[in-house]
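Ticket #4471: structure output looks truncated?

Reporter: J.K.
Steps to reproduce: submitted the chain below (196 residues) through the standard prediction queue, then opened the result file.
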Amino acid sequence: MTYNTQREQLILPEYGRIIQEMVDICLQIEDRSQRQQCAESIIGIMASMNPEACEQPDFDHKLWDQLAILSNYQLDIDYPYEIVKPEEITAKPKPLKYPMHRIRYRHYGHLTEEFMRKIKEMPEGMDQEELTAMMANYMKRCLYNWNRDAMDERKILADLEHYTEGTANVSEEFRFASVSNGHLPGSNASKKRKKR
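Returned output as attached by the reporter:
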């Protein structure tokens, strides 16, 4: 008995060995028009194997690309689309540029600094005060997640003053929210209760 592990490795395993054998037979057909007909029949079978993908854009184009791959680009037929080249498949993508920003306090992150810059530019009033209070609670959660032993509300207020250069402060009535479970009160995660 011959096991699949002993057979030749499939190029595209998702289509199985039968489709691969059909492509191999198609490669052996000498008459070009018959070879073209055979290739179109194989495309029809490949499409019927994945009917839910028919709605995807460029589905037909992908099938013809896959037929070319299955034949190791040896199938000499009239492709209805321009076939993707082998070097395009194996080409490595260009490395993405990672935005490098100098962050004063890494545990708060870059977006916190951006937000604090916006708060600093806001005119004094209730909006600025409420946003400052929200950011103070957010900074507490960030510090809690970074290092629970370093949790100090006075440090957060000092960092807040440092970020805004003293232009934005919390009100005297402000009290920090509890983050003992890792979530601020009022969030969905803090409302979930364990089922007994």
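Triage note (M.O.): checked the attachment and the full token line is present. Residues 126-146 form the longest helix (21 residues).
Status: closed, working as intended.
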